[in-house]
Amino acid sequence: MTESKDTKPKILLLTTGGTITMLKSSNGALQPCEDANKLIKAIPELSSLAEIEILPIVNIDSSNFTPSTWLTISKAIFQRIKDFDGFVVAHGTDTLCYTAAALSFMLQELNKPIVITGAQVPLEEIGSDGRSNLINAVRVAISDLAEVAVVFGSQIIRGTRAKKMSAFDMQAFVSVNDNPLGKIGLSIKYDDSAHLRSKKKPLLRPFLNSNVAMIPVYPGIKPEIIEYLAQTHSGIIIEGYGAGNLPTDENINLIPAIKSAIERKVPVVVCTQCILGSTEMELYQVGRAALDVGAIPAMDMTPETAMVKLMWVLGQTDDIESIDSMMQKCFVGELHEVK
Predict the structure, then answer these.
(1) Model pTM score
(2) Which residues are catalytic?
(3) Residue 3: its pLDDT value, please?
(4) The pLDDT of residue 4 is above 50
(5) CATH code matching the domain that covers 212-327, chosen among 2.30.30.240, 3.30.200.20, 3.50.50.60, 3.40.50.40
(6) Do strands 296-297 and 268-272 pair parallel, antiparallel, or not at all (unpaired)?
(7) How much is the pLDDT for 301?
(8) Helix locations, the chain, DSSP H
């Protein structure tokens, strides 16, 4: 974005309790920073990039996030969308990709960046990646990008394509089944697929039915598990083998349970346990059988994104045909539609 020499971009930093904005208190304990001045003192480079304002949202480990937290963050950003040039969400790494997907679906037609970042190591510890990740997140937040993105290491990743791949590496997140939106080096370079600033009017679409279950198939899985989930949940995500294959033999046949769930108007979406690739359930009989009773293929969505999207879709309709259609439609770059 273009700014005058006397005016710095205004960035809202929303903190949620993750490692990245934790600083040591007077007693040496780590706690989230709620004072922009203290953060600027710890990372003086930020003040040369932008005018930073901090908005604490929650102070919890991201393992304790719930879908209601996604709603809180989305609404907080939307209420202030005209007041800032960009937004940075500081987040714990464990559930960061779920939040990134949720913000992508709930905040659409964006005309400025919403950047989510985190850290493997706290700011004040030796070897911390928090400093560079936060600086780079702000760099992206004042750039021409106009969508929800995850910034981690040197990667800029679309919010619906991010996945945590390592609890050890500093490049903890990767872009799954799509090119990264961009890369960060001496400068920021965006892929041709990146959406840039425009005159669009942002939309808040805070639809959410969080009563969705997700379960991987495994050797010996009992159909009764699917039957139980169909009785207690509004929707089910099943992580199949390979291209979306499911067990169909004798006592481990999941197809009758899936058929029963769909007859109860509980949608069943099948994704793949593989990191890369897409569901191609028509390839093998063990996948075709689920398609034939009405299971919905997740195509090349990550399991995390498929789960969040099903929650979002169920927040808008309970019609099985509409759910099927919406799950296979691309809204925010979450899948490649079959043409």
Answers:
(1) 0.92
(2) 19, 93-94, 164
(3) 45
(4) no
(5) 3.40.50.40
(6) parallel
(7) 96
(8) 36-42, 45-49, 67-79, 96-106, 130-141, 223-232, 255-263, 285-292, 303-314, 320-327
